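Collaborator request, handled under Task 6.
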Amino acid sequence: QVQLVESGGGSVQAGGSLRLSCIVSGYTPPGNCITWFRQTPAKEREGVAAICNAGRTPYYSDSVKGRFTVSRDNAENTVYLQMNSLRIEDSAMYYCAARTRGGYVFTESTYVYWGQGTQVTVSS
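C-alpha cells returned to the collaborator:
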C-alpha cells in the first residue's frame, strides 16, 4: 500500500513562492511517476508537474512551466514542488499522486494513490 502525505501549502501574495512536499511511503516502482495535481471548485483536476524515473525526468504543464520545479529526494522518499512567481490563478488544492502503470503522465485515471491535499492560496 502506498501512502502520500502533502505539506507546505499556505497563503502567499502574488509573485511569492511556496515549496510543497510529498512524503511517499510504500513501494513505488522506480520508473513510475509521482505527480502533482491541483483542483479548484470551479475547475477539473489538472496535472501540473511530474517526476519520473527515480527523479531523472520532470514534466510540466504549460501553465506552470518556467515557474514551478519538481524534484525528488530518493533518500528521504520525498517529492518537492517549488513554486515561484505565484499567480492568483495558481490558488488551488494541490495533491500528489502515484501510479503503478504507464500512460500519459497527466492522465488522472492512471493514478491509484492520492494524498489528502494541501491548500495554496495566492492573493493580490
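The cover message to the collaborator said: "Residues 21 and 32 are 18 Å apart (CA to CA). The mean pLDDT is 93. Please let us know whether this matches your experimental observations."
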